[in-house]
Predict the structure.
Amino acid sequence: MAYCPNTPEEIQEMLAVIGAKSIDELFSPIPEALRARSFDLSEGMSEFELMRVMQEKAAAGGTEVVPFIGGGLYDHFIPAAVDHLSSRAEFYTAYTPYQPECSQGTLQALYEYQSAICRLTRLESSNASLYDGGTALAEAALMAMRITGRHAVVLDQSVNPLHREVVQGYLANLSDKVVEVAPSGCSSDIEALMAAIGEETAAVIVQNPNFFGSVHDFTALAAKAHEHEALLIVSCYPISLGLVKPPGEMDADIAVGEGQSLGNKLSFGGPYFGFITTRKRYIRNLPGRIVGETIDKSGQRGYVLTLQAREQHIKRQKATSNICSNQSLCALRGLMFTAALGKKGFEELAALNYDKAQYASAALIGINGVSVLNEGATFNEFTLSLPKAASDVVAKLLASGVAAGVPLGDYYPDLGLENALVVTVTEKRTRAEIDRLVVLLEEALWS
Amino acid sequence: MAYCPNTPEEIQEMLAVIGAKSIDELFSPIPEALRARSFDLSEGMSEFELMRVMQEKAAAGGTEVVPFIGGGLYDHFIPAAVDHLSSRAEFYTAYTPYQPECSQGTLQALYEYQSAICRLTRLESSNASLYDGGTALAEAALMAMRITGRHAVVLDQSVNPLHREVVQGYLANLSDKVVEVAPSGCSSDIEALMAAIGEETAAVIVQNPNFFGSVHDFTALAAKAHEHEALLIVSCYPISLGLVKPPGEMDADIAVGEGQSLGNKLSFGGPYFGFITTRKRYIRNLPGRIVGETIDKSGQRGYVLTLQAREQHIKRQKATSNICSNQSLCALRGLMFTAALGKKGFEELAALNYDKAQYASAALIGINGVSVLNEGATFNEFTLSLPKAASDVVAKLLASGVAAGVPLGDYYPDLGLENALVVTVTEKRTRAEIDRLVVLLEEALWS
Amino acid sequence: MELIYEKSVPGRSGVRVPIADVPKVVGFPPELRRQSPAAFPEVSELDLVRHYTNLSRRNFSIDTNFYPLGSCTMKYNAKIMENAAALFANCHPMLALLPGGEQLVQGPLSLVYELERQLAEITGMDEVTTQPLAGAHGEMTGIMVIAAYHKARGEKRKYVIVPDSSHGTNPASAALAGYEIVTVPTAPYGDMDLDAFRAAMNDQVAAVMMTCPNTLGIFNPYIAEICEIAHQAGALTYYDGANLNAIMGKVRPGDVGFDVIHVNLHKTFGTPHGGGGPGSGPVGVRKELIPYLPTPRVVRKEDGSFAVEAHPEGIGRVSDFFGNFGIMARAFAYITLLGREGLIEVSEQAVLNANYMMARLKEEYELPFDTTCMHECVFSASRQLKDGVHAIDIAKYLIDRGFHPPTVYFPLNVKEAIMIEPTETESKETLDAFIAVMIEAARTAKRSAQELQEAPVTTPVGRLDETRAARALQVCCE
Amino acid sequence: MELIYEKSVPGRSGVRVPIADVPKVVGFPPELRRQSPAAFPEVSELDLVRHYTNLSRRNFSIDTNFYPLGSCTMKYNAKIMENAAALFANCHPMLALLPGGEQLVQGPLSLVYELERQLAEITGMDEVTTQPLAGAHGEMTGIMVIAAYHKARGEKRKYVIVPDSSHGTNPASAALAGYEIVTVPTAPYGDMDLDAFRAAMNDQVAAVMMTCPNTLGIFNPYIAEICEIAHQAGALTYYDGANLNAIMGKVRPGDVGFDVIHVNLHKTFGTPHGGGGPGSGPVGVRKELIPYLPTPRVVRKEDGSFAVEAHPEGIGRVSDFFGNFGIMARAFAYITLLGREGLIEVSEQAVLNANYMMARLKEEYELPFDTTCMHECVFSASRQLKDGVHAIDIAKYLIDRGFHPPTVYFPLNVKEAIMIEPTETESKETLDAFIAVMIEAARTAKRSAQELQEAPVTTPVGRLDETRAARALQVCCE
Ligand SMILES: Cc1ncc(COP(=O)(O)O)c(C=O)c1O
Ligand SMILES: Cc1ncc(COP(=O)(O)O)c(C=O)c1O
């Protein structure tokens, strides 16, 4: 079962046309000495047996656990239409729209996606997607380096630690000037960030809400960066932008983010997509593919890949990025998600996340010894201080089928956050689930 | 949330065009006295809450039970492609192809379906589907009455009892001459059936394999029926026809069957489809829709609904049947199933069913006091004689998560079959599951 | 496009069947074997997928086109319904009939029960059976129930009355239940002539079947009188609920005096039409008729659990189990999602859209019954006919412009009928676009009949020769 | 077609969000609120569905058309893979990183581990990481691993060598890892010039990146020598596995002497291309390089259970978790379903189809490197150019005939390149149909260049003005 259609008779006919005696002969350009020394795989099977294997694995996938965890990836509601539409074969079995006339479906959708991202962030230009939130942040840093011709980067430590690792990895061989700035409590230390900006700084990188859940206004930071001719890069959580001031309203230069929460399944880590937007004047510095509007000979509107001269297949080592395949289908889902909820629904969704998280935090701080560490506003995540090591508490609650949050100790070993726990409450967490979390946490702490 | 798009402004605009002041005014033709006295339904909800309700119901759906039950509906493997293709929106959100030029998708598929059913049964003409196996059998009886101008029917009691009830119901107001003929053991009593045919007999109705799982050759019965100018109607299980002599090879006049096993999910009783095929000369007596081949002005081949003059929308009370909506999408799945497996795969599938059932029956009769009641050949079902009441045994095994079979006592109260159990073994039952059935049955009987 | 059989290549194989994990025990007797394998196509999975994907693209459908097919309620089929129904894909109905099996299928049984309760409340009937598999099947079931009722009272009545505007399934279903049909003409106000009906009524009439609003989209103001007249003669009243989409929350047939009703879940309750089915046609009855409903019934026991009970006096079974459960699950999801207010909104918006359509088109098209309509409106192409343009020509022109045509030539009592049911899920913008093309068609008719007669030109095939099809009777490829 | 934003109607609403079941506690601070809502379209669910369903119909795709895009391995994407991947839709990856969480996600962890073992065996490498999210991402990861290796040995090398026929991502990825690029030209036998390579090699070279078979579809017979030359200079060898579809079970890069490899699950392992992604680009390495793989690693413990371990010497993270798991699940399903024999058959049939294509077309089209090819063949439209017909004109003509064009203008070292990769899942009949049209195109070129230059005429839009797009830079609708 290899999905190979040709019958033995056809194979013989084809070999005759080629003038070869056997298929083996076609492999004769490969010297004998180079032949495979082993190919020890199991025997094939049918769909039926395969699905039994897969079902067994999926059954041990932790989906019975009620998640109050985020860390950049969120358990959000996905309208049914998103699945149905994104699984149209014409979308998912096509490839990069190199031939625009027979790819207007993908191209127009990506143009609409770019527009959605601009509308979401209130910036002017977007590309057709990047791999994920972490790599988008790294690409933004590289982009800022290209724009400014500088090599230093100021990185807020309250940016998602996983994303920071990705950024550090991407920059490892290109810059030795990544300065991380510690938070002040659960807040980004805006003063310290400002102080860290210098004449070599290409960009200062922050996240909103930050990893602790705190929401900031980075307008002043943007002004400071611009004073030094540096850029402000904001990584943002798209769902929060239904409520929270978007990067464009803070005068940020580049906004990026993890797109998963826009209609993509958690799926144990991917595929998701990263988005990036910037000012119109920086469009030529964007990484990846960009779809642009144009017309055909008869004046009909259509869409094409544009500014391809920035890309690897033309510019090779001088390209703005190495990205080729991106996360088109995931971006399409993101677009459909925004269109399904629409202007009003998207706002309502954000408000609901906020309200549920507020309800949860109010209930949780009713527990003896528990308090919220965030000083200012939060969105749908907040950091609790517990009277015990957060790791132990999380392990205990997991045994009762609840993932209570992400313990911060491991991610911030130097900040004394062993007892701190980031709790996420999306719109999918019901009141009953929240109430149960409170009961279980109290039990875990006090009985 | 009613999927109504018009905004309040648009509604006002529309009312203005109509010349009505309010929507209420549009309902003014309805006298006040006739207005609804109650409309006590719950409040609406969103997709999210709805799916929680549905998931809860589905979780209590018995799907953890390993089914060795059939009774006309079978747990067969369905190739993934069948689901994907039949859920193309253009197929499932279209309706009856009244306008052939924009419905060639459905029409050609139904033509292919009709062809598949003819190839399966080895008869010449089929329609575009009926509701299900039971109603198809009833329609076949009515059809035979129309063809022969007679009103009596001979009905083998080894036909599925549920289907017999449907036939009896359909004929209740049209014929008082339905003679049921008891089986001889687990075999259809062909002698008795022959003897029951008289000059008033429109048709003799049998099933292959019969409800006990026994496979017959009804060629002689067909000859006998034809001697009396009566018709032979065979209800058949499509998967069995990968191995078993089809009705067309037995000189049957009409073949019908429950199509569920051809690529349709069990889905707690439907939707499935019924199929019907007959000799070319009886085509005008077929119930329901028929798709035929033709050409357009430029000579291009195309498909249309044909022989519509037989149908209710033209002939009204004189129509060959009252059927209007049929089970098109299920028939389409049936077609796709046959095409996915293909000539060879379909044969292999039938052989596998047979082999698994043989393996199971050989193992089961190893249990003390258990024997197989069928005398001749069986396909993937067989009837066991147990040393205890089959109902009790089934109830006991259900508690261990195995549906051991269908106890016959209730269906044949007069035949002394309280200890008889029809066991079904499809290709999906693994050896391990069969072996466990043997162990559990032995336990239930002897410990 | 080639047929799948024409793409077959000997020896090519498609999907692999499960692997045998048991030894072969004994062979199947050769004399009972089929002589040659069923000649299914030998295609690869890609052949299969490409064939049917491309075939699907040759259809118009709700998801791709406005589809105002009158009397069919082609509303949007919400995607969440598909997801909801899929959850039950692997539930075996036979489990419910096994000893001890009911407990294992409480979920789906509760759905059957609750859907029956919802439908009873919506229609104002006392009990509902979900067993019938489509509207016509519901009609037949309903009339069989009526026959059983009369029989139980020792009566054998002979006739069923239907108006001439009724759907063809009504007389066909009644005939199937053993009745002779009496057809009553339509009065100038657009529904069954009351005097003619009175004249037709007598003690040999078993029932009268009404569609209300009728197939002209008109609500019959004399509907209560009709019920009374029937009841006085000992006849029962049957309500064809195909057009229920117009009146949810406004009128309940049970309140009006109907004894039996069927509803089409695939119309009013938003389940997809599947290219011609599957549908589902539950039947509701008034208290006196409950005993005659088909067997078995899903009942709720004192402890709140659900059971399957035999219904011994009933008309037997009209299908094997509880009906087209997958369709019922979608309808249950729909009703539960929309709720009381949502269903009322549905009817209001459906009626608004139809009246808007009627108001905007009546200048160009003859409106045989010019009165406020309900969920649909029926025009006649009689004016266009003067220029040699038939309803069918207008229909084909619409296809070229990307719209599925309305129902044409039905109801039979309107010449050159064009029956438009926009449904509530279509927007004013869509209606306006359709209206513009309809007006264009009317104007084109005046200018050039030929242009319309030659349509469609944008479809994979042009107008097809139906006579040839009926003569050749090529219904299966050799 | 209108944009979804152009279909927006103020006040219209789409999908309903979940219902609030908690009271509002405190309001969000106004100064942190966004000023005006994100201007997403206000459309109904039906608007949404109809828009994207119709939009999808404006694409060619594997499921609807033959799609022989060279270097992209557009093979059939088996439907069962979709079902298999969907099973994991709700698994939260963060669970794996929580204390005590590993036990809860043994299923997906085992899949990561087993897929890595499968890929290691297929490529002959010692360890694999699935973290990279696409081929280019794998390249970057691989080169970063190489950089870390050199660094650990106290070396800071400056260059990476690539052949001129290499894919653009190779030099771009190496540049991203901080290297300067040395490009080596192609020899007349169709692959990197060995002498030029030898000349370019020195102790400042960190690695050489080879694609084998290369983008001309040619298997480089000197590949082992190249590895040796590199190793002698202390450089490492990188294998771009984008073309692995040609050689499964025949050659393993690890056996040949490669140190690092990436594979494209979305090419060789049949996962769908999604209109441009998502893909997945696992990286395999030889033993010495294992320490530098990204963190974390999924390991199998003594008791057979799976754990997530930090990998402290590694290059850090290249993505958040374990890679594009949904794509990995499909690839795992594919490999498991096909098994050893199936994968060998894949490569054999892919090579057969490509050679058949080459044999049948070489009379009409210039074949710059006329030698047995592997999975793809590269023609040049140089003969047609004499009549004024470019590769792009032939491509557009193919569109009108229902075929997705091959890759054109790549590789860059072939003028007017036409790069055809039929893949193994296409049948001889499909190839023959395509070949017939290619031949027709070549003949038409001789007769009427214009006919080709005006193509396509059957598509929703004609040839689009790319210059205008690049000038206008309209990349988002206001
Ligand atoms: C008024 C009316 N009654 C009955 C029916 C029959 O319904 P079904 O097609 O489900 O059998 C229809 C269907 O078109 C109808 O419009
Ligand atoms: C030879 C070769 N290498 C690398 C790549 C890059 O792979 P991806 O698109 O997954 O980043 C490609 C993709 O087209 C390719 O063909």
The longest strand of chain C covers residues 205-211. The radius of gyration of chain C is 25 Å.
